[in-house]
């Protein structure tokens, strides 16, 4: 029998299996949340030019799915930002600033230690992944978007300030430290959030109370990849739906009997937008390694090892370099017991499948650390893990060649 999980259930005690709903949480502000749009951005409309990709970009960057019900009504983050989050503090926890949304020399003429400057940045829609409403200089609501974790900037103006780069994981972001700023959370829960560190997030802590953060994954290079979850729980839109409703706190529907989750909210501000969001994600290419950063001869030798002696290619199958089924099982993920690959079983046991899928290998040069839990700080550590687990007996030269090949993907 499925259980009704409140998306505001971040207010809970760690280590407990049942979900605790936030005290006093109501949906009285639903109408406002449903109609909420940022004045500095276009409203969502099926008539917008550019087709699904254009709509998807808007959703990815600016649509909160009504999650102000969590970030404003429950966690009261607008109060925290207004009172204590200066631009310097925001950058320190990994938030990024979109320079294209600002006039020239804006930051050079403002006090970066004043929270009022942060409010102005939000008013101008310049904080990547954060959407707000500002009235007479007062921050009255705040919500988050997909871009918070899955976009960054190119640092062309300053560290943390530049042009948007969608799909890149924001590994500087410290979501736990940000959530822990909420005055609505008890100290023991704040301690859990503060333990995560930059680039890590636990997408199940508010469901099962277990503390086990994952590395924020990239959202680029997804074309041809059917299951963009570490444990293959479902296709890409399944995960978008899960995150939007259960993690972002969006106002929508999500149900998975395998996890005992059933959430229904009217109106559903999530499900109708999943196709457009997927179309945009599928359009984001994996970035190629910087010119001259890979030894081509070594990478060629590594490719032969990858698909030959080392046996990596039996699971990481080109061109997506993940597991695939053929024939009638093509829509079913090919998964592995944790012991099969020497992975920590902890996260798999919390998932719907209890297993792991082979991670699609793309732009590995761009997003260390590796494995779902970040336990491999470098590609060399990845190769060492499998060399030990499968007793491959690779020489140092062969390991270096494999690393070169992995960097080339």
Task: Give a brief description.
Mean pLDDT is 88; it is low at 1-50. This protein has helices spanning 30-35, 51-62, 68-71, 77-84, 87-92, 115-123, 147-150, 175-179, 187-194, 205-208, 236-247, 274-282, 296-307, 338-341, 346-349, 379-389, 396-408, and strands spanning 97-98, 130-135, 138-144, 151-153, 161-162, 164-166, 200-201, 214-215, 254-256, 261-263, 335-336, 356-357. The longest helix is centred in the last third of the chain and has 13 residues, at 396-408.
Number of domains: 2
Model regions low in confidence, pLDDT < 50 over at least 5 residues? 1-50
Between the first and last Cα atoms, what is the distance in angstroms?
A: 44 Å
Strand portion: 5-15%
What percent of the residues sit in helical stretches (DSSP H or I)? Answer: 25-40%
């Amino acid at each position: 029998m499925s259980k009704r999980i409140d998306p505001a259930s971040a207010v809970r005690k760690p280590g407990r299996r049942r979900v605790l709903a936030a005290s006093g949480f109501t949906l009285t502000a639903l109408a406002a949340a449903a109609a909420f749009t940022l004045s500095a951005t276009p409203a969502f409309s099926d008539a917008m030019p550019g087709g699904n990709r254009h709509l998807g970009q808007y959703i990815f960057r600016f649509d909160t799915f009504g999650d102000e019900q969590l970030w404003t009504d429950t966690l009261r983050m607008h109060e925290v930002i207004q009172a204590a989050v200066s631009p310097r503090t925001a950058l320190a926890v990994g938030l990024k600033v979109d320079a294209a949304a600002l006039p020239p020399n804006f930051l050079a003429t403002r006090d970066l230690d004043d929270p009022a400057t942060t409010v102005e940045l939000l008013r101008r829609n310049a904080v990547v992944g954060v959407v707000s409403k500002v009235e007479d200089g007062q921050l009255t609501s705040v919500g988050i978007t997909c871009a918070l974790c899955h976009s960054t900037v190119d640092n062309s103006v300053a560290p943390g300030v530049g042009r948007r780069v969608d799909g890149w994981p924001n590994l500087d972001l410290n979501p736990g430290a940000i959530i822990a700023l909420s005055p609505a959370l008890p100290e023991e829960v704040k301690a859990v959030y503060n333990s995560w560190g930059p680039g890590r997030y636990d997408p199940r802590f508010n469901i099962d109370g277990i503390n086990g953060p994952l590395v924020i994954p990239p959202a680029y290079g997804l074309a041809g990849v059917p299951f963009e979850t570490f444990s293959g729980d479902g296709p890409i839109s399944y995960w978008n739906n899960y995150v939007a409703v259960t993690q972002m706190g969006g106002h929508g529907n999500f149900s998975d009997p395998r996890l005992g989750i059933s959430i229904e909210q009217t109106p559903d501000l999530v499900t109708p937008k999943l196709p457009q969001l997927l179309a945009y994600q599928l359009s984001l290419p994996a970035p190629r390694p910087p010119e001259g950063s890979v030894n081509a001869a070594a990478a060629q030798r590594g490719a032969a090892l990858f698909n030959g002696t080392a046996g990596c290619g039996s699971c990481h199958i080109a061109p997506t370099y993940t597991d695939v089924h053929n024939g009638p099982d093509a829509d079913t993920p090919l998964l592995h017991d944790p012991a099969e690959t020497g992975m920590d079983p902890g996260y798999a046991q919390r998932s719907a499948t209890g297993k792991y899928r082979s991670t699609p290998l793309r732009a590995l040069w761009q997003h260390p650390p590796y494995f779902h839990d970040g336990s491999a700080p470098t590609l060399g550590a990845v190769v060492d893990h499998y060399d030990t687990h499968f007793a491959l007996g690779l020489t140092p030269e062969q390991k270096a060649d494999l690393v070169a090949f992995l960097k080339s993907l």
